[in-house]
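Field reference: sequence -> structure
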Amino acid sequence: MIRDRLTLGLLLLGMALVLGACGERTIQAPEERLTVGVLLGGNEDDKGFNEFTLKGAQEAATELGLEFVYFASPSVNNYEQLSEQLIAEKPSLFIAVSIPDAGSLAQAAQRHPEIKFALMDQAYFPGFGCAETVTDCYSPEGGLSNVTSLLFAEDEVAYLAGVLAACMSESHTIASVAGREYPALVRFVTGFQSGARSVKPEIVTLNEYLPSFDDPALGEAVAQGFINEGADVLFAVAGNSGNGALLAAQNARVMAIGVDVDQYHSYPEVRSVLLTSAMKNVDVAAGSAVRDFAAGQLIPGIRTLTVANGGLSLAPYHDWEEKIPADCKANVEEAEAAIKADPTITGAKP
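Structure field:
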């Protein structure tokens, strides 16, 4: 009986193979490989925000076996053109960095619902790339349900930088050299000034917003002007333009604070004057976005990294570890605890 069943089974299997050979075959198309595209609004080797965002995204894409392409747009004038060129590459995920025109990216997201967009340091809200009548820019009604904004509470880490700057300042005048007047940069400046005034209410806080993130000569000139006005601590938050400000501090031998990454490592030429850096873990944020996208877990809306969740922090003091007085270090530690308890003390708008 068993032998008969086995013979019958083999006969049926043979017939199925013959019929399959003679009939139509269903051929599965090879699975399309996902592509990550990055568009930088500035130079790719700025020793800061752009460079490390690119690094984090590229490393994650390589790790996951994804295709990777990027364009860098040092000029604001050709950002939209390069955006269209990147879209022509048919990326599955489009990471936009240092966006000069939020409206054009919003329109691109609406035109290309098949592409996921991750926007570094920019959030859409009514009046800023989203219709005034729309309250939720990330809903289907808002036309941006394929967009995730990766934000940082810059004001929190800048507040810590301001506390340190004010405590270290002997001239009672400090300055910040900032990039274009985007919300993220305004949060940096506001937090820095608020932190400084929490230590010395009468301290003079100078600031200038620059038209470009990639003009180190301009950053150096503006910083030198502040030094001439008596500033003895400079906070550089302007990308490659900010590197020029750090160079001015180095040449004048005044204290400085870097931004985005630990610039002690990324810009060693200014180590001797660098107190610390107000770090945003942009490489981690970009890499996480790529990994979540590949796993189908990149949810539209806003992600915010804070001091409390470890998304921002001051870099080590490095060469200044023994030079910074204990009371200044204690002030920073107390300010960090205060921010975790009540982030609104920075005075920045949400």
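Note: The two ends are 79 Å apart (CA to CA).
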